[in-house]
Write a structure and sequence with these properties.
The protein has 143 residues and is of the alpha+beta class. Helix content is 27%, strand content 39%. The longest helix has 14 residues.
């Protein structure tokens, strides 16, 4: 039986593993496992990735994205649909692109033990921040 009291926002906020769907140039979906952070107050989902990844190339061409997360029991799921904006990669460890990744890390995981090292790795790895604006949220749980 599908529960009517299920709130997909709660599952999204608790989930740190999901599947991001982007659109390939031929129209087929491209699926990537990601570690999302859902900021319900801001109405966005944040994901760190690298320049050159398929999802990054797809989103630069077509910003439509869908994220699905599944509850730990496998009996509940939540989906977010929206448009993604990409920030980065940055070349300056103290530049705005890297600062966006620092802000993401702080929101998702708290303080890093060595911010200088983190910033250097964000530049050397050519990290990109995906900010997906939440247009639609839905989901269900089987009770």
């Amino acid at each position: 039986m599908i529960s009517t009291s299920f709130d997909p926002h709660v599952l999204l906020a608790a989930s740190r593993l999901g599947v991001l769907a982007t659109i390939r140039s031929d129209g087929r979906p491209q699926l990537s496992p990601v570690m999302p952070f859902y900021d319900q107050r801001a109405g966005v989902v944040l994901v760190s990735t690298i320049q050159g990844a398929a999802k990054t190339a797809n989103l630069r061409r077509d910003p439509r994205a869908t994220l699905e997360v599944t509850g730990p029991d496998g009996m509940s799921w939540a989906t977010v649909e929206g448009l993604a904006k990409l920030t980065g990669p940055g070349r300056d460890p103290n530049g705005p692109e890297v600062q966006a990744l620092v802000d993401y890390y702080r929101a998702a995981a708290g303080e890093h033990p060595d911010w200088d090292e983190y910033r250097a790795v964000m530049v050397s790895d050519r990290r990109v921040l995906i900010t997906m604006t939440v247009d639609h949220v839905y989901g269900a749980t089987i009770a």
